[in-house]
Amino acid sequence: MKRKEYLWAYLFISAPILGFMLFAFIPLSYSVYVSFTQYSGYHAPVFQGTDNYSKLLAEDPLFWKTMFNTFYSALGIPIGMALALGIATALNQKIRGIYFFRTFFFLPTISSVVALTLLWKWIFNSNYGLLNYLLGLVGIQGPAWLSSESWAMPAMIIQGVWGGLGINMVLYLAALQGVPKSLYEAAEIDGANGWQRFVRITIPCISPTTLFILVTSIIAVMQDFPRFQIMTEGGPNYSTTTIVYYLFQNAFRYMDMGYASAMAWALGLLLLLVTLLNFWLSKRWVHYE
Amino acid sequence: MLNAVMGVRQQKKRTHEIIRQTIAYFFLVLGSLVMAIPFLWMLSTSLKEQGVVFEMPPRWIPEHFAWSNYSFVLTEANVLHGFMNTVLVIALPCVIGLFTSALAAFAFARMNFPAKNALFMMLLTTMMIPGVVTLIPTFIVFKSIGWVDSWMPLIVPGMFGAAAAVFFLRQFFMTIPSELEEAAKIDGLNPFHIFVRIMLPLSKPALVTQGLFGFLAGYNDFLGPLIYINSTEKYTLQLVLASFQGFYNAQWTYIMAGSVLALIPTVLLFFFAQRYFVEGITMTGMKG
Fold first, then answer.
1. Is B169 exposed, middle or buried (0-12, 13-18, 19+ CB in 10 A)?
2. pLDDT per residue over A5-31, tens digit each?
3. So where does this one cross the membrane (chain A) (predicted)?
4. Fewer beta carbons within 10 Å, N or C terminal of chain A?
């Protein structure tokens, strides 16, 4: 009787487990091997020891530049989180029309990244784009955005923050609604003003959500590829070439799969380290009930 | 006297409330404008005649509505064709993937078997493995079995279910009371029948949420098609749209018309099912 139930259960979970083996475990293991080979995708991989890794760390200055660019692009995360928290806080003030406002902020989340990126490419157009036109109205001469080495990454960050607000706002709003009212009432009796209540009660109470958003955003932003592919193609002069973009170039343009795999592992380990660091640091600032 | 003090205090509190709400409205309206104006700009550009696009200052409402941009983009520029391809590509992974995920979620939530937790944890690690790490070896494997430039790499993996969906549905199944299930067991229903006749009908909201997420992910996927599809006749909608950049360089009217069309299905879906999206996100987000 019991054994029969086991069989049913194993049958039920067989598809995702098989999927895990075929599309996660085996590729992952194979990728370790490929990262130690020279492999063009046409001929069999040739083992060459740690060459790819030493090239990555010591001989390829572009890799370090892409590393810098990746961290630079992550600057949008704290900005976006602060804005999302601000909007969620505003929405939490017994506002009428929450549904209406939420829709506006959420629209980019469900929209096609390709369409949104094309749209912003047009908005960032230095001569005829909307942004420089609006800046012109208030007397600011806008930069050349995507064709400027120093402004291309800020443009990517602006677009990323704009596109990511909705999901973080929804998460923060749910967290805010979960903060016990009694805490606010107690603080009010103790004479705490609005700002003090926000800093001393709201922020600690929603800190698990903050950690969740931080960790997932870092993992997402550091692997972001489509926006860069469409908006800047890594340029101008490599100023928006992130690790992932460089990895794609190596894998699918230069057909250097071995080197690209080494790069993927470097990025994977980096993400793991950053995530662990996040959890370790979180002991100091995240409060669970 | 006491009443008067209470009255003043209440009055003060109410004034505070009004000030707070006014500030909140101000920021929300400002924020909504920042969100909405790019979309309006997209719509406005899509309805302009080619030459008018570079007019400065820009005209928000075009003098002549160039609806022809849309018909051109739909047919000549293959948006419709791309849309059909996308539907063909995502139908199977959406439907079958949802089913296999739900089946596994049911087993993890409601059944006992050796190594259950270990297997579940193993599945969850897939959610933590960065996609870029598995991308290249997966490509190599699909290439070696001749699946490059076919839809197979976009269709097949999704049919095995997704770890995130298993996780989400498992959470949901665990909240369903077990009385019905017990009764069904006594009646001699086998686990598969219990799943199909009892669990599935009770889980419609959760299934809809996951189905929507699956649809959205498939519909908006750009990376997969970019890597695997080469022939233009196999392009999915997102690839067709991305290829506009090369084909209609600086012809922003066409590019924006295509973008508007690409947004319509998901935006419509969102308007009808906003609740499911929001609940789905907060559930996976908060309990994750």
1. buried
2. 899 999 999 999 999 999 988 988 999
3. 7-30, 71-91, 103-124, 160-179, 199-221, 262-281
4. N
